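Page 37, continued from 36.
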């Protein structure tokens, strides 16, 4: 199965080049921008209209912290499923023998959607990702996996979730897909990574660069499993 992973399109999905021969497309969140869920809704629905028409058999969407209209319930799972898009929110799905788990939750930073306190995430991931899985999709990255950014004092930090990294190492899925942390200034996060002797491929599918929205810096990542 050939998989195209994208994330953080932030309304610029029309700029993507649609690759040929893809069996499954996975978007790991932030198709939209506004914090206000009522303003956010139209952007999510516009994205769905684009996503549903992609010439790809299987489509998966996991929400991101900017997708406030989904958290608020203004856009519901049925709004995706009626267009043959699988929306995953702490759910599993098996597609042609490939076991997939998806969750929108990220460590709390500001007042956005689907955020949890870091000290609650270890218990959450152990409960939510509870069995065999080939692909783990989250909006945010595990700690140390293509997750570098600058904090408010200008120093560089790894923004990812250590509890999620621990769970991925325990379960060893084929793919761990996320976005959330974009390219910024001189930091490139978009791309793929493997850790040491671990077989899991980590993919940051974000396609934008902070401060340069309107021009894509990546076209996502492609895998075959």
């Amino acid at each position: 199965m050939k998989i195209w992973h994208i994330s953080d399109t932030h309304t610029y999905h029309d700029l993507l080049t649609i690759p040929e021969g893809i069996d499954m497309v996975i978007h790991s969140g932030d198709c939209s921008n506004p914090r206000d869920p009522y303003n956010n809704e139209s952007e999510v629905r516009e994205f769905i209209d684009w996503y549903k028409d992609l010439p790809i058999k299987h489509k998966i969407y996991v929400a991101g912290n900017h997708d406030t209209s989904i958290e608020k319930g203004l856009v519901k799972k049925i709004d995706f499923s009626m267009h043959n898009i699988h929306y995953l929110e702490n759910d599993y799905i098996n597609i042609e023998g490939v076991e997939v788990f998806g969750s929108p939750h990220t460590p709390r930073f500001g007042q956005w959607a689907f955020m949890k306190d870091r000290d609650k995430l270890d218990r959450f991931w152990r409960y939510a990702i509870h069995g065999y899985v080939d692909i783990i999709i989250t909006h945010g990255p595990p700690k140390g996996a293509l997750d570098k950014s600058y904090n408010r004092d200008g120093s560089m930090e790894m923004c990812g979730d250590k509890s999620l990294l621990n769970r991925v190492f325990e379960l060893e899925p084929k793919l761990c897909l996320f976005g959330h942390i974009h390219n910024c200034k001189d930091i490139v996060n978009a791309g793929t990574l493997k850790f040491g002797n671990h077989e899991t491929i980590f993919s940051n599918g974000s396609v934008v660069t902070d401060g340069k929205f309107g021009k894509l810096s990546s076209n996502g990542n492609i895998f075959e499993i």
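Residues 139 and 178 are 5 Å apart (CA to CA). Flag for discussion at group meeting. The two ends are 5 Å apart (CA to CA).
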